[in-house]
Amino acid sequence: MQYETPSVLPTSAQVADQNKVLRNTYMMLALTMIPTIIGAFVGTSINFSFMAGHPIMASLLMFGTMMGLLFAVTALRDSVWGIVALLGFTFVAGVFLGPILQVALHLKNGAQLIGLAAGGTSVIFFSLATIATTTKKDFSFMGKFLFIGLILLIVASLANMFFQIPALSLTISAIAVMIFSAYILFDVSRIVQGGETNYVMATLSLYLDIYNLFINLLSLLMAFSGERD
User: Which pLDDT score is estimated for 52?
Assistant: First the structure.
């Protein structure tokens, strides 16, 4: 009788591919921080006073611009132009940090709060990414719940653009921190499990998680710890 030894080559190759996607994603994610920081410096020097007079129109314009750039990255994801589009998107995203950074920098401890928000975002990201990578647990079951939560969050944010309720703003920011933290776990898990094989799209997903986490952490810190003159 002849016994066939089960081949482990497909599994080994799959693991190698997943590790490659994860490695490329982390490298690209680090690279996206450069245009984001440059864009943020540009954004802090731009006069966004028009947004105060037309906050809803300004928000819709920013949202439309971001969605258009997201579509471009998605359409070009399989070519080198996808990387160019991704870096362009992160630059514009950095510019759009201008308004919240300007508000923060007008506080006495604004620079410290920005640093604290950045540090907190980093700690949350690396902690959750490590959990998803080392445990190898599949967190795909969270997808539907997170998507529903994200839709409700967007609806609440749009509603608060009209009502401008401070307590609701804080609630939205707190929920957003939880949702995008969970999304980090979900998105890293997808890469580890082989659910996302395109590192441009993987980087985009994680970048959006980090970007929104930073904004909402900073909003909470300004609300509770901001020192005004």
Answer: 62
pTM, full prediction: 0.89
Provide the token pair at 134: 């080392």
CA-to-CA dists, residue 216 to 9, 164, 196, 211, angstroms: 44, 16, 26, 9
Which residues, 6 or more positions from 170, have their beta carbon under 8 angstroms from its beta carbon?
A: 219, 220, 223
Q: What percent of the chain has pLDDT over 90?
A: 65
Q: How far apart are CA 145 and CA 136, in angstroms?
A: 20
pLDDT, residue 90, reads 96
What are the structure tokens assigned to 36, written together?
Answer: 């984001």
- For residues 64 and 87, what is the distance between their CA atoms, to the nearest angstrom? 18
| Residue 142 · residue 112 · CB < 8 Å | no
Gap between the Cα atoms of 46 and 53, Å rounded: 16
